[in-house]
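Justification of computing resources. Each target in the renewal requires a structure prediction run like the one illustrated here; the chain below, 117 residues long, is used simply to show the kind of job we budget for.
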Amino acid sequence: MQDKKKFMILIFGTGEGMAQLSEDEREAGMKKWYDWDEELTKKGIKVHGEPLEPKAMKIVGKGKKTSQGFYSPDKTYVIGGYYVIHASSMDDAVEISKGCPTFAQDGVVEVREVGTM
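Resulting structure tokens:
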């Protein structure tokens, strides 16, 4: 994709969002995720994306101390998945990200441009 940059969409949720829903509501919610994923794929926007399992390990500092989980500073949100997309600019990537189904469960999305090495 010439003239397109890569951006990472980090998707955060409360960890409880779908669990609090009825089976029918969960199925409808998952359909929104499948539909959004398919839309990004068909438009050639999606490079890669996956959900993440809830268990995480954090490794910190020179001593490489380990602890369980990685949460937002107030432990409200956990990262639940990510996408790498093609977009022409940060503004374009933000607009694409606004279609993310996580917002239906009061989720949070962080958009970052992928650097080069």
